[in-house]
Amino acid sequence: MNIADIRESGLLELYVLNEVSADDRRIVLAAIEKYPELKRDIQEIEYSLEQYAKVHAVVPSSDIKAKLLQNLDPPPVPQNTSKSDGTNNRRSFFGPFITALIIGSGSIAALFFTRNEMQQLNAQYESDKILCDSLQLVEQQRQEIFAGITDPNSKILVGDATENYEETVLYIHHNPSSGKNYLQIKELPDIAINQSYQLWSLKDGVDPIPLDVFQGSDSLFEIQFEENTNAYAITIEPLGGQSSPTLERLITIIPVS
Predict the structure, then answer these.
(1) Is this prediction's pTM over 0.70?
(2) How confident is the model at residue 207 (pLDDT cuts 50, 70, 90)?
(3) Nearest in space to 41 (alpha carbons), one of 88, 84, 4
(4) What is the C-alpha separation between 244 and 237, in angstroms, rounded?
(5) Which residues lie below 8 Å from residue 94, measured CB to CB, with a gap of 6+?
(6) Who has the most CB within 10 Å: 74, 88, 166, 251?
(7) Could you count the other beta carbons within 10 Å of the beta carbon of residue 91?
(8) CA–CA distance from 46 to each of 12, 16, 22, 40, 225 (Å)?
(9) What's the average model confidence in pLDDT over 116-131?
(10) Orientation of helix 22-34 relative to helix 38-55, angle to 10°
(11) CATH for the 155-255 domain, from 1.25.40, 1.10.1760, 2.60.40, 2.30.30
């Protein structure tokens, strides 16, 4: 059997549950020795079994044990009975064993599920972990932005909307000490699906320098900082931006000084 056959056979799951025959156990052990990566599979199976058991654990009714014992215990044997074929003794011996078996069977049955279900559990775990990491990253970015815009060295630059785009309202939180800029959008003109907004740096005697290209989906985010900029400008450009601005679609100029 190759490694794929072992993984699809279900032997690894039975091995973890200690439900394999002696021959199958030898097959699994030989496969682990030949394919060391199966050790990781076994660890994942053990983890999945544990998580599944926790999720699907059922607390039995408080009176279930008493009812089972009542049904399984044999009737009392008269003291003057002189002969016995051992049946009552065997029933007395096996009664508690059967009770324990019945009570425990629910927990054991919960552990027998398909490899597909186990893979789904692993996939859900990974998905939840990615989501958690993403939320943590977003929160970290929010804290960094808040720290940036509340820095005492940060000043607010107000955008001057052009005549054709008077509805534009936005600000740049500009910090020359840290070299950080944050764009805060209040209102922007609509753009087509094949267009983008583009930020430019304006300096004396220099052609406009292309900076960030964005779609306006975020209301507060970090933008590029360009040393010795006299003013920043924003235009509407073809999707993805371009190397020189389209002046007839200039929507705002934000003076730095």
Answers:
(1) no
(2) very high
(3) 4
(4) 9
(5) none
(6) 251
(7) 14
(8) 10, 7, 20, 10, 51
(9) 70
(10) 120
(11) 2.60.40
CB atoms within 10 A of CB 156: 11
Q: How many CB atoms lie under 10 A from the CB of residue 147? A: 12
Q: How far apart are CA 127 and CA 123, in angstroms?
A: 6
Taking alpha carbons only, the member of 228, 236, 235, 234 closest to residue 256 is 228
CA–CA dist 177, 223 (Å, integer) = 15
What is the share, in percent, of the chain residues with pLDDT greater than 70?
Answer: 68
Q: Are 211 and 241 in contact (CB under 8 A)?
A: no
Q: Is the separation of the CB atoms in 12 and 6 below 8 Å?
A: yes
Helix pair angle (38-55, 87-110), 10° resolution: 100
- With helix as H, strand as E and coil as C, how does 28-86 read? HHHHHHHCCCHHHHHHHHHHHHHHHHHHCCCCCCCCHHHHHHHHHCCCCCCCCCCCCCC
Q: What does the block give as tokens for 205?
A: 């005697």
Q: Please enumerate in sequence order all residues whose Cβ is within 8 A of that of 149, keeping only pairs 6 or more positions apart, or say none.
A: 173, 182, 184, 220
Give me the residue label for tokens 């931006």: 241
